[in-house]
Amino acid sequence: MKKIQMVDLKGQYQGIKKQVNDSLQEVLEDTSFINGPQVHAFQKELEDYLQVRNVIPCANGTDALQIAMMGLGLKPGDEVITADFTFAATVEVIALLQLTPVLVDVDPETFNIDPEEIKKAITPKTKAIVPVHLFGQVANMDAIMEIAKEHDLYVIEDNAQAIGADFHSKSGETMKAGTIGHVAATSFFPSKNLGCYGDGGAIFTNNDELAHTIRGIVNHGMYERYHHDVVGVNSRLDSFQAAVLRAKLPNLDKYNEARKAAAAKYNEAFKGQENIETPVQTGDSSTHVYHQYTLKIKNGKRDALAKHLQEKGIPFGIYYPIPLHLQKAYADDRYNEADFEVTNQLVKEVISLPMHTELDDDQIDHISKTIIHFLNN
């Protein structure tokens, strides 16, 4: 059995080596390292894949979130509602822009933001909602968009973990994650389902006017060289990273299918285990692309299991060990522990197993048997 890795980027590279190398060579030959042909081609190809009017590449996923909020014209003191159970980048940019983060609890099964908790958190100062499509599964966007419409709020999708996932609206329409709200942000960090070989990100929107504003923001506020029309930043996807992404994008659906197949095998292996809750998938298989395969370990055994896996050389992740409302940077007297019952329980139970496109049956069998044997003894 080959060595188990949390993410096997080397193995994935072997399958697309020629395409990646040829694309990188094109950049070297062309020497257009910033905003070159590879960037423009990738932008158009991703627009076609997502069926979205505008993709604006940028330097990383955190920038993408910040720029999306800047593009919407949110002002200091405006309240932005998001999930307590997610990575800090989601709330980090809210604080950086001097907006007011409002953290709410999540659904105990999907780990995504709970629409009922959103409703409770809305005040006259609320201006936006940031649903995070956590671990690869799309949040309940029908309910979120209805809430936003009722209260005249923006919806900014954090799509860093769910690119390629589908959302089946109750209207009968199927849309890709990141194309449902007013604007979305994604990350191309190497471990993502669509990852480059460095940092990278993008913003998506069907609003052409908003896209125009964002295109200026990512480039120092310029639409014409040395004419700074809006306050901007320097956040651009470089041509090497675009070249890698162009090589990977045609394989994205195949990559996601491999993740789903691995998740199904894990699910079968863990069936009937009383100390293990496998991921709950809402809708059909296209709605979850398993950026992470995350178990809930019951009866207080998660930390002991983590120690055991470490001893056995099996990688794992605990995403996330501390809720955002308890992080020193984001602690606030407004928060009541009783309002975070689900998140406070999840941080004690969740553990993510190796999940990537090169995971094979022998590895899944070894990982699952190691976990089952430990929990049952």
Walkthrough of the structure:
- With 377 residues, the protein is of the alpha/beta class.
- It folds into two domains: 235 residues, Aspartate Aminotransferase, domain 2, CATH 3.40.640.10; 124 residues, Aspartate Aminotransferase, domain 1 (Alpha-Beta Complex), CATH 3.90.1150.
- 38% of the residues lie in helices and 15% in strands.
- It is built from 13 helices and 14 strands.
- The strands form four sheets. A seven-stranded mixed sheet has the order 1-9-8-5-4-2-3, sandwiched between helices. A three-stranded antiparallel sheet has the order 12-13-14.
- The longest helix is centred in the C-terminal third of the chain and has 19 residues.
- It is globular and about 70 Å long.
Brief write-up:
By secondary structure, the protein is an alpha/beta fold.
Strand order of the largest sheet: 1-9-8-5-4-2-3
**What oligomeric state do the depicted chains represent?**
single chain
Characterize the overall form: globular
Number of domains: 2
- The helicity comes to 25-40%
CATH superfamily of the largest domain: Type I PLP-dependent aspartate aminotransferase-like (Major domain)
User: Any idea what the radius of gyration is?
Assistant: 21 Å
Number of strands: 14
Essential attributes:
2 domains, Aspartate Aminotransferase, domain 2, 13 helices, 14 strands, seven-stranded mixed beta sheet, 377 residues, alpha/beta, three-stranded antiparallel beta sheet
Secondary structure elements and pairings:
Blueprint: H1 9-15, H2 17-30, H3 37-50, E1 54-58, H4 61-71, E2 79-83, H5 89-96, E3 100-104, H6 115-121, E4 126-130, H7 141-151, E5 154-158, E6 166-168, E7 174-176, E8 183-187, E9 201-205, H8 208-217, E10 222-224, E11 227-228, H9 239-248, H10 252-270, E12 276-277, E13 293-297, H11 302-311, H12 341-349, E14 350-353, H13 361-375
Parallel strand pairs: 2-3, 2-4, 4-5, 5-8
Antiparallel strand pairs: 1-9, 6-7, 8-9, 10-11, 12-13, 13-14
